[in-house]
Amino acid sequence: MTDAVRRVGYLKRILERCVLCPQMCRTDRTAGEKGFCRLSAEMVMNSALPHHGEEPSLSGSRGAGTIFFSSCNLRCVYCQNYQISHSPAGLTVSEEALALIMLELEALGCHNVEPVTPTPHLPGIMAALLIAREKGLRLPFVFNCGGYERETIIRLLDGLVDIYLPDFKYGLDEAGRCFSGALAYPRHALASLREMVRQVGDTLEIEDGVAKKGILVRHLVLPGQTDNSLAVLRAIRENISPFVPLSLMAQYTPIPAVTNHPLLGRRVTRGEYERVVNAALDLGFEELYTQEVDDRALAPDFRRESPFVWEENGEFINRR
Ligand code: SF4
Predict the structure, then answer these.
(1) DSSP-assigned letter for residue 315
(2) DSSP E strands: which ranges in the chain?
(3) 12-56 pLDDT tens trace
(4) What is the 39 CA–ligand 1 centroid distance (Å)?
(5) What global pTM score does this model have?
(6) CA geometry: angle at 69 spanning 172 and 59, to 5°?
(7) Model pLDDT for residues 75-125, shown as the tens digit of each residue
(8) What is the 3-state secondary structure (H, E, C) of 207-273?
(9) Rounded Cα distance, 44 and 124, in Å
(10) End-to-end CA distance of the chain
(11) Which residues are bridge partners to 165 per DSSP?
């Protein structure tokens, strides 16, 4: 038995008393119990498709091979993917079927395989990845997560993940608790980010315009929360490295649940966004992906066959 198979076996056993993420529910998901993420042990997915709306080096010319999973270990009141992340509904998928989906995305020409959000489904996803690798999958494996991870779990992924794509949503505890139901978000995000960087380095290696290995940290700027954004930047700069590539996202669009929210019911202003981008530049971050601030609604609609309204990845500007 290889070391990777052993680690996946260990991840599966964790489901019997689930501590896959910092929610630490300790539910027996193998017996059908459900924790904060509302998922039992089965993997549930929404869709798999070439995604052209990621950062340019991830989408490339043929798209990221994105696999959207249902539900999440965070409950962000404003989640831009709320149609699938706030519900455990979807298609139950086996490890073997998921491995075939990964191989199909490769056959379609996608540049990587990118499960979103992998955390609560991790044992099955990693088992599927091993099967797909055995069958010849060569694409980089992208771990696109919400940043609320346990460092000890991330350590088990050493050598299996090619590109880490974590959010770093909150630099302030209070914001994580209020907006996402996540206690001590900054501490967990920082510890897991440190481990990710230990594994893959603090840069994103790009060949012929396409990301092959490394890390890219995303931060969605929220309206009225620039202090939170600045705390994120300081935490990464002071504890990790100024070389970590950052994607600072301006596309926040209020979803129906927060249309009347006193803080979250509007778009981010140009002034707010520029304050965050300028702070990142002042702190010495070397590689930034930024977006234009405009009125376009960029939240996906998973009721459509193609959930994303933008077809080209020109949304992001690489300020390297
Ligand atoms: S993965 Fe789900 S059940 Fe497990 S600790 Fe996290 S929220 Fe709880």
Answers:
(1) T
(2) 43-51, 64-69, 91-93, 113-116, 142-145, 163-166, 204-207, 210-215, 217-220, 246-249, 288-291, 316-318
(3) 999 999 999 999 999 999 999 999 999 999 999 999 999 999 999
(4) 8
(5) 0.94
(6) 80
(7) 999 998 888 889 888 999 999 999 999 999 999 999 999 999 999 999 999
(8) ECCEEEEEECEEEECCCCCHHHHHHHHHHHHHHCCCCCCEEEECCCCCCHHHCCCCCCCCCCCHHHH
(9) 10
(10) 43
(11) 144
Residue with tokens 């009125």: 295
23 in contact with ligand 1, CB cutoff 6 A: yes
> Are the CB atoms for 23 and 37 separated by under 8 Å?
yes
Which residues share a beta bridge with 319?
none
Pairwise CA distance, residues 176 & 184, whole Å = 7
With tokens 């300790």, the residue in question is 26
For residue 199, how many C-alpha atoms fall within 13 Å in the half-sphere facing its CB? 24
Name which residue sits closest to atom 2 of ligand 1, judged by CA.
Answer: 37
What residue spans define the domains of the chain? Answer: 37-318
Q: Whose CA is nearest to atom 4 of ligand 1?
A: 18
Beta bridge partners of 92: 44
Q: Is 123 in the pocket of ligand 1 (CB under 6 A)?
A: no
**Cα-to-centroid distance, 293 and ligand 1 (Å):** 35
Q: 255 CA distance to ligand 1 centroid (A)? A: 25
Instruction: Answer whether 214 contacts ligand 1 (Cβ < 6 A).
Output: no
Nearest to 120 by CA among 11, 197, 219: 11
Q: Which amino acid is at 110?
A: C
Please give the class, per CATH, of domain 37-318.
alpha beta
* CA dist 214 → 57, 60, 91, 253 (Å): 12, 16, 31, 29
> Which one, of 52, 120, 55, lies nearest residue 85 by Cα?
120
**Tokens standing for residue 128:** 């599927």
